[in-house]
Write a structure and sequence with these properties.
about 500 residues, alpha/beta, Rossmann fold, Helicase, Ruva Protein, domain 3, Arc Repressor Mutant, subunit A, five-stranded parallel beta sheet, 24 helices, about 15% strand
Length: about 500
């Protein structure tokens, strides 16, 4: 978020000028509510860049803000929780007046601290006014076990007391924590269950009585803060919990979720992924869908821990890796176009293996085998859905048979004892020549995907070969960096002879 530090010169600079301007004080929750209503009436997008929540999460957040509620976003990792709460600051007024240099953004009309009260009392209408940009009215803290009450609320500063010869009961010796410094703004706590229970108790008085006490001294500050939280349901059992009294004071618990469709997933990935490289890189729209399909397969796989979730960052990192593999290949073969291949999906699994938590069954298989399995399932799913005719209705109880007749010429070519070898290292010219050598493949691809560019046509040819393999019509054998495709019978006979 870009911070603006210099307020316009036209804004009032004294308390008297502020009164004459007609500015009215309001609570931060009323301010959020007012600006939200203005956006709703104008049809302006509430949370730009947030995809897939228009009918679920966004209406619930809207209701919470209109109700002036503190709320909790509950969801698995990579569901845009932090991004949403950081955008709440855009619902604040651009500039807010405060008593000049106030550490807790005191309202000029109702000063809270001893210094603020004395300043207004001594200078009256000439009391200096400062202006706070909305970007400075948002504070965020990641909950960790070492967070203390002093971090959030504040503590006595003995050095200040000694240097200024103040009594420890004097509120001037207080060093304010994050929440008082968020006065008249928004304070967010990420991963709330990780906060120790005794620290969570310290939040109760703020949420119920709207004030704080420090070290038992009779200093009470009625704060005006909008509190928002995020939490991962996995943390409830693994690392901590939200204490019941605090949960009771959080007015709304809003459940987030992963994108429900491939189109929503792809929109998020394309929005976030770094794809602007030094050279043009061709990545087929189908390959982008395959990336999202792999992520969707992981989220419902029996090998992957569903309670841990599969973040949207997986798809982002995966797509960036595919771009990089194509880019590296083009640099290794100067003068050739950079184009991602189907085989890159398997070489790029490094983007998957470190981001998926496996259950015991998956650990037995091994993370690499699980990743290959997920990529294979994704290819088969999209191939069968988009490149096979819809099967005729069968009688109840019978499995529908897929019709591969359109690819019979290709299968026959391999069954004649022939094979091909592809690699992610070969030049584009060699890669294309190998695919075009397959009898019937060029003609079949033209029928399945007509009117495509040359690079897209080559990608589709490779996709058809891999799709036939995933449907067990061809066999694939990986030798070092080479991938050999052959017919199933020939492969079995070679294995027997060896």
């Amino acid at each position: 978020m870009q911070e603006t530090t210099k307020a316009p010169a036209s804004l009032p600079r004294t308390l008297g000028e502020l009164r004459q301007s007609g500015w009215q004080a309001t609570t931060v929750k009323d301010e959020l509510r007012r600006n939200l209503i203005a956006r709703l009436r104008s049809g302006q997008e509430l949370f730009p860049g947030i995809v897939g929540y228009d009918k679920t999460v966004v209406p619930q957040i809207t209701a919470a803000l209109l109700s002036r509620h503190d709320f909790l976003l509950l969801g698995l990792r990579g569901q845009a929780k932090t991004r949403i709460i950081r955008q709440l600051v855009n619902l604040l007024d651009e500039w807010m007046p405060e008593i000049e240099d106030s550490p807790i953004h005191e309202s000029p009309y109702e000063p809270l601290t001893k210094r603020g009260r004395e300043l207004v009392a001594s200078m009256g209408e000439q009391a200096p006014i400062g202006w706070v940009h909305r970007s400075r009215r948002y504070q965020e803290k990641l909950a960790t076990p070492d967070v203390s009450i002093a971090d959030l609320i504040g503590d006595i500063d003995p050095i200040k007391a000694v240097s200024r010869r103040l009594d420890f009961s004097d509120e001037e010796v207080i060093h304010y924590g994050l929440i008082p410094r968020s006065n008249r703004g928004i304070f967010a706590i990420n991963e709330l269950p990780d906060l120790q229970a005794r620290i969570q108790v310290g939040l109760l008085n703020i949420m119920e009585e709207k004030d704080i006490q420090i070290r038992g001294f009779p200093v009470r500050l009625p704060l005006d803060v909008a509190l928002v939280f995020t939490a991962n349901p996995e943390d409830y059992t693994n690392r901590g919990n939200i204490i019941t009294p605090l949960k009771d004071r959080i007015n709304a618990q809003i459940l987030t979720h992963y994108p429900e469709t491939l189109a929503e997933s792809r929109a998020i990935t394309e929005q976030e992924a770094w794809t602007k490289r030094d050279i043009p890189v061709h990545v087929s729209p189908l390959l982008k869908d395959l990336v999202e399909q792999v992520v969707h397969e992981a989220r419902r796989s029996d090998f992957v821990d569903r309670s841990s979730g599969v973040s949207a960052r997986v798809g982002i990192a995966y797509l960036e890796t595919l771009y990089s593999l194509a880019e590296a290949r083009a640099h290794a073969h100067p003068g050739e176009a950079a184009s991602a291949r189907v085989a890159d999906l398997f070489e790029g699994i490094t983007a998957l293996t470190g981001k998926m938590e496996l259950v015991y069954k998956g650990e037995q298989e091994g993370i690499t085998n699980v990743a290959f399995h997920l990529v294979g399932k994704a290819i088969r799913e999209l191939f069968n859905k988009r490149f096979l005719p819809v099967p005729a209705k069968e009688k109840p109880g019978r499995e529908r048979k897929q019709d591969f007749s359109a690819y019979q010429k290709v299968v026959d070519w391999f069954e004649g004892g022939k094979f091909i070898e592809l690699s992610t290292r070969t030049s584009a010219k060699e890669h294309e020549a190998t695919l075009r050598s397959i009898g019937g493949l060029d003609e079949t691809t033209q029928k399945i995907a007509p009117d495509t560019s040359s690079l897209e046509h080559i990608f589709m040819m490779e996709f058809i070969i891999e799709g036939l393999h995933q449907n067990y019509l061809l066999t694939k054998h990986i030798i070092d960096t080479r991938i050999r495709y052959t017919d199933t019978v020939s492969y079995m006979m070679n294995e027997v002879s060896e």
